[in-house]
Amino acid sequence: KICERRKEIYNIGEVSKVIIEFLNLAKAREWFEKQPLRQIQQEVEYVGKDGSLYRFDRVVIDPDRIIVIDFKTGKEGMSYYRTQLKNYMKILSALNPQKIIKGYLAYIDTRKVEELDYYFAYFPYVVNFLSSFTYLFNNFINNVLPRYQHSDITILAKRNAQVEMIVEWLTEKNIPSASFSSLNIRKRKIIREIMSLL
Questions:
Q1: Are residues 41 and 78 in the same domain?
Q2: Does the reported pTM lie above 0.85?
Q3: Which residues form the PD-(D/E)XK endonuclease-like domain (predicted)?
Q4: Both 170 and 116 in a single domain?
Q5: Distance CA 93, CA 165 (A)
Q6: Is 118 in the same domain as 35?
């Protein structure tokens, strides 16, 4: 088959092999599985705040979260790819503030997946929970959390709904959480320590 745009010739058998091997990855299979209440959008267009039009390769919409996948071929790890995907995640977060937004760069040629996850509007900050920040949270859990009583608040948000967006993640990490309105003055200081770690 000839790619008209670049005038390159591709072997259908080789291309099919690459695609099949990629789709056999456990993470990739998740994006194509049918589930109750799941919606899947392909090559869908969204408009950003600046009025620019963006086309997302694949968007998987579940009741509690949205996954956006950007398929790539060729070189991995280009910073532009991450910037582009984070912009997609910001757009989806603005449209769906009640949901967790997860993003993946899917490198088809090398059969690799890079995850950018937990982007959400977090009062009064915007916090980017990227995989590269994992060590900061491990440090927080091991060295900071023990200094407070378990009943003290360690993650807070303006409204309960914002805590509910990440309650699964907080539960996995054994991190107590509450809404801003439920805090007393002593507990409010803890948020400053958390944010200083980010």
A1: yes
A2: no
A3: 37-112
A4: no
A5: 11
A6: yes
Give pLDDT tens digits along the chain (198 positions). Answer: 334 444 455 566 666 777 777 777 777 788 888 888 999 998 888 887 777 888 899 999 998 888 999 988 766 667 788 888 888 888 888 788 777 788 998 888 777 888 875 544 433 333 444 444 555 555 655 665 555 544 444 444 444 454 555 556 666 666 555 544 444 444 445 544 554 444
Verify that 53 and 107 share a domain, yes or no. Answer: yes
Q: Which long-range contacts (CB under 8 A, 24 or more apart) does 165-174 make?
A: 165/97, 165/98, 165/99, 165/100, 165/120, 166/100, 166/118, 166/120, 168/64, 168/100, 169/100, 169/118, 169/129, 173/137, 173/141, 174/141
What is the span of the domain harbouring residue 162?
134-196
**Gap between the Cα atoms of 113 and 102, Å rounded:** 13
Number of domains the chain is built from? 2
